[in-house]
Design goal:
Low-confidence stretches: 17-25, 59-67
Largest sheet: 5 strands, antiparallel
Number of helices: 2
Order of helices and strands: HEEHEEEEE
Structural class: alpha+beta
Number of strands: 7
Strand order of the largest sheet: 3-5-6-7-4
Radius of gyration: 18 Å
Number of domains: 1
Length: about 110
């Protein structure tokens, strides 16, 4: 009985660790390429081109999507008090906002309009 309990707790712990790790990995598919948190701003420009709009300022700490739609996706990797620089792209029927802090991608917000 005790061995079953230990095995069950170990399995639950492993599921939690791997589940948490999976959430920490953020990517955005751009054609057949992938943009990942931690990539440089040069990589963002290579994949997405020049942004439609750039802004600086504080970022929202909310994990809710802005549109509230079930088709929107928001991935927060790191938060910075300054909020970094936000680069906004209009791609087909999506608006993608990439937050860059110290030259690295920290936040990717992609939602359908």
């Amino acid at each position: 009985m005790r061995i079953r309990l230990i095995v069950a707790i170990s399995a639950l712990g492993a599921a939690f660790v791997f589940g948490t790790a999976a959430e920490a990995v953020s990517t955005l598919r751009v054609g057949n390429q992938v943009l990942t948190a931690g990539d440089s701003e040069v990589r963002v420009t290579e994949l997405l081109g020049r942004p439609s709009h750039k802004s600086r300022g504080r970022s929202s700490r909310s994990n809710r999507s802005r549109s509230g739609s079930s088709r929107s996706r928001h991935v927060r990797i790191a938060s910075d008090e300054s909020g970094g620089e936000k680069w906004q792209y209009h791609r087909d029927d999506h608006v993608t906002t990439v937050t860059i802090v110290d030259g690295k991608v920290t936040d990717i917000d992609d939602h359908r309009i």
